[in-house]
Design brief:
Elements lengths: L3 E3 L4 H10 L5 E3 L3 H7 L8 E4 L5 E5 L2 H15 L1
Parallel strand pairs: 1-2
Antiparallel strand pairs: 3-4
Length: 78
């Protein structure tokens, strides 16, 4: 499982922030245009689950929704 974060922030300010705050996943800076125009995401945080085949399974601001989809997907693996 791979976790990524697409951020609005510029690389320098993100690097400064990450020196003080630990995240256990990769954060990709300067993705505002992609988030707004391509994915139509403007709320923060928004979670996206994409399966191994590249199919978007869920886009939600609700963490409980995301957890349920993850449980279903993990059960398919077993």
């Amino acid at each position: 499982m791979l976790f990524l974060s697409l951020a609005f922030d510029k690389a320098d300010s993100l690097r400064n922030f990450l020196q003080k705050t630990v995240f256990n996943y990769r954060i990709i800076p300067e993705k505002e245009t992609y988030l707004l125009n391509t994915l139509s995401i403007s709320e923060y945080p928004t979670h996206i689950i994409i399966n191994r085949e590249g199919v978007v399974l869920k886009i939600s601001e609700n963490l409980d929704d995301i957890i349920n989809v993850l449980k279903i997907e993990l059960a398919k693996e077993n």
